[in-house]
Prior knowledge:
Number of helices: 0
Low-confidence stretches: none
Shape: globular
Largest sheet: 7 strands, mixed
Strand content: over 45%
Radius of gyration: 14 Å
Amino acid sequence: QVQLVESGGGSVQAGGSLRLSCAASGHTWTHHSSHCMAWFRQSPGKGREGVAAVCSDEVTTYATSVKGRFTISKDIANDTLYLQMSSLKPEDTAMYYCAAAPGRPVLPLAPSVYTIWGQGTQVTVSS
């Protein structure tokens, strides 16, 4: 099974940038013809929210709250997923998780369709 490990989280002031990485190992997502990978976040009092997704058809999907500020990308050769975050806001503070889903979900930002999850990396944005 695929194992996902996130890194790159930290503390940053509002307006700053961070780049999150998600390294995949085992039977990686690149072995599936149809799949999606995504970033989710969770903060106290909130459920797990979809942030950005990229699927094997190269279609990307972003939450309205991060559109224009975050960019999802993948390095196929190194089995790594990235989330470049810029113009960070305090409301972006959360634990960020990467995830993988087999097939091609109709709603790629829905947490329920993802079967493989990392353990998360904390992002804290201060004013």
